[in-house]
Each structure stands twice: as structure tokens, then as C-alpha cells.
Amino acid sequence: MNSKEKSVNDHTAIDNERTGAAPARADRSRPFPVPKKLAVINDISGYGRCSLCVTIPVISALGVQCCPVPTAVLSNHTGFPSEYKYDFTEHMKPYIDAWEQLHLQFDGIITAYMNYEEQVRIAADFIDRFRKDDTMVFVDPAMADHGRLYRGFTDSYAGYVRDRLIRQATIIKPNITEACLLTGFDYDKVKAYAQEPRQRKLKSCIMNMVDELRALGPTGIIITGIERQDRIINVVAEGDEVRFISGRKTGQSRGGTGDIFSSITAASVLQGMSLEKAVRKAAGF
Ligand code: PXL
Question: Smallest Cα–Cα separation from 276: which of 238, 248, 239?
Fold first, then answer.
């Protein structure tokens, strides 16, 4: 192949990537499956089965192309007593600019673990630049669990995520700690309600929380990890419907559960599954 032919072919490949069109093939009778593309803004934690290390294989296994935007490279997640971290903030902008030069577009965008408010700003800008009319924007606030912020996060981070990301989202997936931080509800009170024999107070409190989150803009709201005796309740709100999905608790909760949950839910919705069914699938994994 001469160099001119090669450059034309390279362009065709880029155009096909961008538009989702099937490349020219000798046999046009067989359909060419073009995977949906999901950009994922998250860190790489080498040890601890979380973030991009689980997101990439899970999304790929579901037949969706995962396109990572790394926020940092860590030796392990911050649930361990210490870690080495290489922050990627200053590289995110040129990395994203390079994608824009190729006119890439995505069927879905997931935002997850970020460390700094500057990264939240970059993620919000990424959504503005890369979303199409029908792009699903899936926001996992990824900042806290079990009533506490992850190490390294400041109290102001929740407000920043709410104003910059939740307002742009199609679907959000806070765990119950993050939902409390985003809405100002008292985590300990919700936890106590969840232990009461009757669920009336718990449900009324969660419904108020859902209303507050819905008022910010997202049409799909998933609140995960409400522990009630030996069960875990996940809440799914879509349109006016709110469902409480209860499943058996299996073993201890581990870091990275949220990333797997987001990956399965987002990839399944992109493949045409209803939000409720996608959440049931993710919860059963
Ligand atoms: O998925 C949660 C997560 C992701 N990335 C890092 C984390 C955590 C949770 O602790 O520390 C670096």
C-alpha cells in the first residue's frame, strides 16, 4: 500500500470509529456489529479490584467499547492504610483535546472517582464537548461510603459534584452515604430508620431524597447499599416510579463494588435494557 492509500484508509477508520459506520468490507451481506462507545472518567488503582481495572473488562465483556479517561494512577485504592499516587490532572486536558481533534463522540459517559475539584471541572467540560443529543451521562459521585468521605476528600467536594455533574446527568448512582452528602440528609438517622421493624420512616425519607435529587435534573436515580438486617436495598427511580429492590447481603462489602455496579448498569442500559432490569442484573452480580 502506498502512503497516500494508507492515509485515506486511516481516515476511513477514524470516520467509522466516529460515526459507528461499518468499515468497507468485501462481503457486505453479513452485518458488522458496531459496539456502543462508553467513555469512563475514573482512576487506575493497581490493587484492590476497583476503578478502571474492573470497569474496562466488565464493560468490554458486555459488548460495549470502554474508552478510559484516567484521573490518576494509584498503587491501590485509598481503603488501604497508604498508597502511591500519580495525579493525572495536568494530562487530562491534552488527552481530551486529542479526542476532540478526532471528532470522537460517545453513546455514554461515566464519571466516577476524581480527586480534585479541578478534575470535576474537567469532567463537566468533557460532558459539554462530547455529549450528543442522546448520550447517556451516568454520574457515580464516588466520594464516600459507610457514612464517611474517602480519604483525601474535602467537605466542599459534594457541593461541587452536585452543581457541576449531577445537574448534567441522565442517571446518577450515589450510595446511601453519598446520597446523604448530596442532599444534606443525616446518614446516621437514615441508618437507624433502616433498622426499624417497619419501613415507613425509611421509605418516606428515601422518597424525599429522591425528590431532591430528581429536582437537580437526572431522570434516573439509583441509591445503592441501604443495609437492613441481612439484606441490602437498592432504590431505582425512573420517571415517577420508585422501586425498592431488596436482595440478600452476600459477604462483606468491598471497595470497587460501586464501579462494577456502575459498569454493568450503564453498559446494559446502553444495550437497550430498562434501568430497573439493569440494576437487578448489577445487584445480582
Ligand atoms: O471505587 C472506589 C474507589 C476508586 N478509586 C480509588 C478509591 C476508591 C475507594 O476507596 O480509593 C482510588
Answer: 238
d(CA 216, CA 71): 25
Take atom 1 of ligand 1 and give the residue whose Cα is closest: 256
**Computed from CA positions of residues 84, 263, 151, 233, in that sequence, does the dihedral angle turn out positive or negative?**
negative
Pocket around ligand 1: residues whose beta carbon is below 6 Å from it? 43, 45, 50-51, 74, 77-79, 113, 142, 150, 255-256, 258-259
Interatomic CA distance for residues 212 and 206, integer angstroms: 10
Is the per-residue pLDDT at 5 higher than 80?
no
124-156 as b/e: b if 16+ CB within 10 A: bebbeebbeeebbbbbbbbbbbeeebbeebeee
pTM > 0.70: yes
Digit-coded pLDDT (tens) for 228-259: 988 999 999 998 899 999 988 876 666 678 99
pLDDT, tens digit, 9 for 90 and up, residues 71-123: 999 999 999 999 999 999 999 999 999 999 999 999 999 999 998 899 999 99
Q: How confident is the model at residue 23 (pLDDT cuts 50, 70, 90)?
A: low
Minimal-distance CA residue to ligand 1 atom 2: 256
In which element (H, E) is residue 146 found? none
Amino acid at position 197, single letter:
P
Residue with CA at minimum distance from ligand 1 atom 12:
77
